[in-house]
Amino acid sequence: MFLPFRLDGNAEDISFGGISIEVFTDFFDAPKYCYATYALKNPAMYENGEYEELRRRLSDCEEMDIGIVFKLKNSRLIDFKIDLENLARRCGDERLKDMELLGWGINDKSIKDLFTTT
């Protein structure tokens, strides 16, 4: 499946060198937001400016459809995987394949809405 994505630009994510991506869709008429945080496998990329380049590249590609694999159990979404090969190809940057997953979650609201304070 191919879905649009958003890059999370919160300061905490950037301060620890994370790259967080959220994809969104309707599953059985209910909105679902799938959120994954990655780190670069090569630590030198944080020192030589490549981290910032990759964030800019992803920002430029926001809302573009990328490959996602979903896992369902009893008609319920239980897991997902962002296809990093497809992400790299769609964004035109092979370095995006060299990220490691730090954490993920599936929510009924966007991550931006979950942590917005009023």
Largest sheet: 6 strands, antiparallel
Distance between the termini: 35 Å
Provide the low-confidence segments as ranges: none
Instruction: Please provide the count of β strands.
Output: 6
| Strands side by side in the biggest sheet | 5-4-1-2-3-6
Q: Roughly how many Å is the radius of gyration? A: 14 Å
Q: How large is the share of residues in beta strands?
A: 35-45%
Descriptive overview:
With 118 residues, this protein is α+β, with helices and mostly antiparallel strands. Helices cover 28% and strands 44% of the residues. A 6-stranded antiparallel beta sheet has the order 5-4-1-2-3-6. The protein is globular. The mean pLDDT is 91.
Brief summary:
The chain has 118 residues and is an alpha+beta fold. Helices cover 28% and strands 44% of the residues.
